[in-house]
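Please, structure for the following, as C-alpha cells.
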Amino acid sequence: MSAGLAVAAAAALAVGGAEAQASRGAGPARVKPPPPAAARLVSAPVRIADAATVRLLRPGDRVDVVAAERSGPPRVVAVAARVAEVPAPEKAVGDGGALVVLSVPRDTARALVGVGTTARLAVTLC
C-alpha cells in the first residue's frame, strides 16, 4: 500500500511541477495536433459497373472498392468504405452501372475519382 501511495505522490508532483513551469512562462505542455485534413471523411459519388450489386447496398454497409483495368490485375482502391447513400436508379443510364455515395478519407476519394475514369469499379461487402 505504501508503494501505491508513493506512486500517487510522485504523479501529483509531476503534474504540479508541469503546471508550475507553465505558470512561470516556460510554455504550455505539448498538445497533440489535430488529425491532418486527409483523415477527415468526405462524400465520394462512385459509379459501380454492376447496377444489380448496388441495389444490394444500404447506407451504413461497408464495402471494398475494386478497380478492374484492361491492363493488369484488379486492385483494391478503397477498403471498408462506409456506404453513405444509394441514390435512386437512373432510368436512362442503361449499361452504365449505378451510383453509390461512399464516406471515405479525402485521399481515397481522389483515388476513386481517378481510377473511375479508366476502369470498371466493383464492390465487395465487408
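The helical segments are 2-23, 51-54, 106-116. The chain has a mean pLDDT of 80.
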